[in-house]
Amino acid sequence: MGVGGVVEKVLRDRLVVQVRGKRLTVPRADCRIESARPGGAERSRPLPPGVTLHRRKQDDPSADLQLRGQTVDDAMTLIDKFLDDAYLAGHTQVRIVHGHGTGRLRAAVQRMLKEHPHVEAWSAADQRSGGTGATVATLRG
Description:
By secondary structure, the chain is of the alpha+beta class. It folds into two domains: 31 residues, no CATH class; 76 residues, Ribosomal Protein S8, Chain: A, domain 1, CATH 3.30.1370. Helices cover 21% and strands 27% of the residues. The longest helix is centred in the middle third of the chain and has 18 residues.
């Protein structure tokens, strides 16, 4: 891509990189180290005077994500963040509810899960948990 970023996490053959305020998961082979900051500093510039940043920590992220009614594009963004949060919270299994509809959303969810670095396996939920209207993903430990 020709842009610089900060590596947040190393996942086997992929890197989670912060680029221009966005988190991207990219193949390790597509990256190269240009320079390392001394002391592991993450901030490239300080906040302006009078501006403060307070991050609210979510106590226990849910193990369920509701996507019914979402477009495929919007759902992909939500799933990526949801999987990151669930992985960091230590969840071993999550459920993504996409509904039945035309099946486009379910197919897109399963394509993403197949490629996502945090996901070890996935399957349709059992009948009590949504059946084919939900997908259960097992996260890597």
